[in-house]
Design goal:
The complex is a heterodimer of chains A (433) and B (297).
Chain A: H1 2-13, H2 18-33, H3 42-64, H4 80-92, H5 95-105, H6 112-130, H7 133-136, H8 145-148, H9 157-183, H10 187-217, H11 235-261, H12 268-302, H13 306-309, H14 312-338, H15 341-365, H16 379-400, H17 410-415, H18 422-432
Chain B: H1 2-21, E1 40-45, H2 54-62, E2 91-95, E3 105-109, H3 118-122, E4 128-130, E5 136-138, H4 148-152, E6 159-160, E7 169-170, H5 176-180, H6 186-190, E8 196-200, H7 201-214, E9 234-237, H8 257-296
Parallel strand pairs in B: 1-9
Antiparallel strand pairs in B: 1-8, 2-3, 4-5, 6-7
The chains are: A mainly alpha (433), B alpha+beta (297).
Chain lengths: 433, 297
Amino acid sequence: MANKIDAAVAPAAGSPTVWQVARDTFRFILKELKPKGKMLTPFNVITGAIILVGLVLIAIRFAYGLGSVTNLSQNYPWGIWIGFDVVTGVAFAGGAYVLSFVVHILKVKKYEPIVRVTVLNGFLAYVFYAGALLLDLGRPWNVINPIIGNSFGLSSVLFLVAWHFMLYMITEFLEFSPAVAEWLHWPKARRILEGLTTGAVIFGITLSTLHQSGLGALFLLAPTKIHPLWYSHNIPVMFFISSIFAGLSMVMIESTFTHRVFKNRIGHELHEGHGAILLGLAKGAVGALFAYIFVKMIDFVHYKLWTQIASPMGYWYLFELVGFVVLPIALFLTAIRRRSVKLVQFTAFLTAVGVILNRLNVSVIAFKWYETVRYFPSWMEIWVTLAIISMELWVFRWVINRMPVFGTEPAAVEAAAETAEDMEVVRWKASVL
Amino acid sequence: MTISRRNFLKIAGLTGGALVAGGGKPAHAQQTSEGGIEFNGMLIDTTKCIGCRACEEACNEANHLPKPEVSFETESVFDQVRDTTPDAFTVVNRFPNEKDPDKPIFVRKQCMHCNQPACASACLTRAMEKTKEAAVIYHKDRCMGCRYCMVACPFDIPKFEYNSPTPFVWKCIFCNERQMRGEQPACSEACPQGATLFGKKRDLLEIARARIYTEPDKYVHKIYGEHEVGGTGWLYLYGAPAEKLGLKTNLETTPYPELTSGFLYGVPLVFVLWPSLLIGLNYLIKDEKETSHGEQD
């Protein structure tokens, strides 16, 4: 570690060259790549097995085509790799832009301790879940076509979404980069990168507004295929609003678990303010939930949806709306009044389930509900999804255990080099699903 | 040097343009393309079709598709309603005739070549493209296999090769190359009954109307494809209710690109408004915090 500190301090003295700094940084990263703590824990064994088998399945998929591992068909071109991994995963990553707005634009200090971990989560969600899109593409090597400019599909919503995914990943990385600079002991770079944060945040919020709603706008082209209870001209608006409470509830769930799992990594500020932060986030979520139910009510009247209610799909619609939108509103309001952090945590979980349900309804369950042979994901599709989540958790844990994510001082980071309690990670993972 | 810089600027400009403009303007032409060229079309008269499947065979040869397991003369294929596949761009199906049970009705299925195709507006690489002459063609070198065209197509026509590591999306391309050579598509050339008739779409509509007018009892008084999804290049005449012939009857007359154009027009607005409003808000709050801080001191 000593040579590392030298490298960080020395540039001020002007003696070491760029080459020396690069060499020291390289050594430092090599050292950091090694796992910390025990290797053979239940969490590592379980997720390791999931990842290994997942990689085999991915290899089969690329060798023999999508039909070899998925249940996709000519009638159902999009399954859970799109409906869950991308359409739902990106909604849950929405917490990053919401919290960035609150902390960097509205300058609310209270949420500062959790903004880094949220941005990290958002960034990793885009890398892994939007990255999972590459598995679903028939010809993923052509993914650069709309980027490098040999064929711009300007009238395509997907073109917009693809561009925004890419730009937003860069933006999220910029927002998180001060933490990387701290980890690498690059104070100068940190200062420069921190100067870019506000710009990155503003660009990020703009991009998020457009691609969160754009994900919904994709389905505007299927008016006869999506059940009338879920098809609406307002899908883009509803996807945008639901990304707010989806993101916020994921922040609440995530902070509940990281709070237990990464106890030793969390600074004083966050420990003390945790309950107040959760209650505050609940207030934000309940506002977005209200906005959402109002748009749903407009649709209900505009499309005369009561004519559709008395049917199996109608009951399913009510189940989604009452159980996972109306009930969370009531529970959040109760929790806020009683200042019950436990109830906030439970309701966040309920809200997240509701978002999964809604996104799957639009993209998979209510899509071609009239067909006799319906799509149901194969075990391999589900397995690969689990493998992607496991990989993301590994990277998340790796970063948390090394970089100053929870607002702790870089010095404290090196002192606390223990790893997380693994069973807690497993439990968190189960809840994420 | 100058050329490469110009190219760079062009790409950069296009990129910016793409982000700001978002959407291309959908064509509003009905019988003609944007350049004023008369659209080609095809008139399918299901009352003339005898189910000989000569069109299927001609299509198979013209597109160099693999030979099917059962020959084109085998009648048992009619026992179930078939769909097009990556290896069969057109299929003929048999439906019972309620008026005259001895004369079943045969109906072809293939790409309808919409005036404003959903697949082309969905495609982010312009792999699906509407030509000036009417055909919706497929540039396989551009395709990334996302299958959004399949989600978007109101007729469920594009078909994906799920069992290939290097898959493509296949569908009828209206024998575009033959048309470019001045020939008619293989299927209409092969049809012994004139049940598939190639021509300018405007003329075909006249012919279809004339047939309905001269034999009002034989036909349903509607030309399928005249107004569906903003009009299609292929038109159908039929004597039994459309929903009993496998034709989709729940389609609106709105061209599909218009379903997303509202959203896409909003994109540049958000791109202009959000950053300016957010920067303003940021300054406003920063200013206020500094002032109140100063007063406390």
